[in-house]
Amino acid sequence: MSNDKPPSPDERLQQEFNRWAGEGEGEKMERHHLDITEKTMRRMDLRPGERILDLGCGSGWATRLLARMVSEGPQGFGQVVGVDISDEMVRQARAASRDFENVMFVVGSAAQIPWEENFFDKVLSVESFYYYPDQDRALAELFRVMAPRGRLFILINLYKDNPYSLHWVPKLKVPVHVRSAAEYVELLKKHAFENVEYCQIPDDTPTPDNYQTTSFHSLDDLKAFKRVGALLLMASKPDLRNPAPGYTIY
Ligand SMILES: C[S@@+](CC[C@H](N)C(=O)[O-])C[C@H]1O[C@@H](n2cnc3c(N)ncnc32)[C@H](O)[C@@H]1O
């Protein structure tokens, strides 16, 4: 009898994304996610001196963009931490970031973010959140590591309200969550986040007529998917240090 234990959900994710990293997907994702990520970053109101977490950072291209935006300024020297479950993605991210003094990459799971509490002013997570096996736990962890009044920005391409995004679910080799924007809003509120809102971010990059897609049924579906756009969830951690009148803390 074999006593090989089946991999845990996190181990499966690590294996799968190490495979992606080995196939060069880390860099390809920069091309696919850049437009929607830049639009998200504009909404983040990034300032020099801030402490930022990039959760599910992959090969770290967005982490480096963030690092440029928060580096030295009158408010100090900002820091950006990229966390990813794939050690191979993190290895590639570190190799590409040697010229950055204010970036750090750590291997870790959203279920146990390897950082201290009340630290990050802002969190960005690009195309990663729907993979987290326990999204409740990930939100509790995000709440823990965010500073009071910290801002959370979760950007995802796979959600019910963009029906074209559902085409690629059967092609994925790991389980994913498929929720609607309204369901995500409820989930964030359940975890005591405030100012919970969402918007859709279209991807305005042109699609060449000869573009080969394996993820969509047709080029028209890919174009429609980009037009409907990604879901951006935004929320704040309340400042429980100075409770507003009427707030009771037990
Ligand atoms: C589709 S890729 C996106 C990577 C990057 N944000 C980008 O846009 O290029 C998803 C990333 O999330 C990471 N990831 C998946 N599940 C995770 C988890 N439970 N904890 C931390 N990272 C996770 C994967 O390893 C992978 O690098």
Q: Which short descriptors sum up this protein?
A:
Rossmann fold, binds S-adenosylmethionine, 250 residues, alpha/beta, 7-stranded mixed β-sheet
Q: Give the overall average pLDDT.
A: 94
H/E order of the elements? HHEHEHEEHEHEHE
Query: Class by helix and strand content?
Result: alpha/beta
DSSP strand tally = 7
Q: Which residues sit in consecutive blocks of at least 5 with pLDDT less than 50?
A: none
Strand proportion: 15-25%
Describe the structure.
There is one protein chain. This protein has one domain (9-236): Rossmann fold. Helix content is 33%, strand content 20%. The protein has 7 helices and 7 strands; from the N terminus they run H-H-E-H-E-H-E-E-H-E-H-E-H-E. It is α/β, with parallel strands linked by helices and 250 residues long. The protein has a 7-stranded mixed beta sheet with strand order 3-2-1-4-5-7-6, sandwiched between helices. Helix 1 crosses helix 4. The chain is globular and about 55 Å long. Bound molecules: S-adenosylmethionine. S-adenosylmethionine binds at residues 10, 13, 17, 29, 33, 56-58, 62, 84-86, 89, 109-110, 126-128, 131-132.
